[in-house]
Design a protein that fits this description.
Elements lengths: L6 H12 L7 E2 L8 H11 L7 E6 L2 H14 L8 E5 L2 E3 L6 E5 H10 L6 E6 L7 H16 L4 E3 L5 H7 L5 E2 L4
Helix pairs in contact: 1-2, 2-3, 4-5
Enzyme class: hydrolase
Protein name: RNA helicase
Organism: Anas zonorhyncha
Amino acid sequence: ADYNSHNLTQKFNWDLLFDGQSLFAWCSSGETGSGKTTQIPQYLYEAGIGRQGVIAVTQPRRVAAISLATRVSDEKRTELGKLVGYTVRFDDLTSDETKIKFLTDGMLLREAIGDPLLRKYSVVILDEAHERTIHTDVLFGVVKAAQKKRKELGKLPLKVCLAAMAARGGDGAWPLRSE
């Protein structure tokens, strides 16, 4: 499938570029396979949001983190571990060049123990957050605390607002302030 021309990601890209300066939290919904997880980090990078730091994309499972990093590095036509990499327990394929990093939510939580402000990240995408793992629940608090001290840090909890959007008649990506 050609995810680059998908309506959801095209709409997200336009909204992001239009309101990119005030990105605090973003809620995105869409069908499974619509490209949210693979395309949104690429759009953020291409929009320059990942230039000041790494774009983190958390996954609850290591297999997902590895396969998504592989997919995005293929789409970007770059060697895995360079522009796009992953970190899972006992396996880190990143470098100083890595700007899009897929990692398990447990690994980001482990990083936050040493750096609670998550200084190396410009955006944190909490993907599959609706699955409500203990790590993801704690990460919401960690990232929110980091945002209070680092106003430039973006947090994107993908899929977490599906029920709220359906109740409000939402139709795609829309901003959600977390203040």
